[in-house]
Design brief:
Blueprint lengths: L7 H6 L6 E6 L4 E5 L5 H4 L9 H7 L1 E3 L2 E9 L2 E7 L4 E11 L2 E10 L4 H15 L10
Antiparallel strand pairs: 1-2, 1-7, 3-4, 4-5, 5-6, 6-7
Length: 139
């Protein structure tokens, strides 16, 4: 288990605009969660979601037995949503590095919260509470 993240559950609980959240390590071990009972088997595909844009966008994400379409692939960030324009839920994952070890923050957010708000919150959360998030510079 990644060291130094003992209080992460308390910090995750403070993120009241996120419907669900889970932080897990590179082995798929759950460090903290909020808003649902995490099925560890659902986390396995997320460990490889940054490996291939085509595979990730093609298969989408499943969390809490709900399928999400993935429409943005910008490592170390991937995000998407499910539902329609009047009701739905967004999803985002961010990979942070703690002492060189990948740790993932995965959240969902419901309308009226949009990715334009939730994704920057996720990046800030990961940087503040987990470690380095390296966002490539635009070309």
């Amino acid at each position: 288990m990644v060291e130094g993240l003992e209080r992460l559950g308390e910090e995750l609980a403070k993120m009241n605009e996120w419907a669900k959240g889970v932080v897990f390590d590179q082995e798929g071990r759950i460090i903290a969660s909020k808003g649902f009972n995490v099925d560890p088997k659902e986390l396995t595909p997320y460990l490889h979601c940054l490996d291939s844009r085509d595979v990730t966008i093609g298969s989408g994400f499943v969390l809490n037995k709900q399928h999400f379409e993935v429409h943005r692939y910008h490592p170390p960030l991937v995000f998407g949503r499910r539902g329609g324009p009047d009701e739905g839920e967004g999803i985002a994952i961010c990979q942070a590095l703690r002492d060189g070890i990948p740790v993932y923050g995965l959240i969902t957010y419901e309308l009226p919260i949009l990715s334009a708000r939730a994704v920057p919150q996720l990046i800030d959360f990961c940087r503040k509470h987990i470690g380095t998030v390296e966002i490539p510079a635009p070309n």
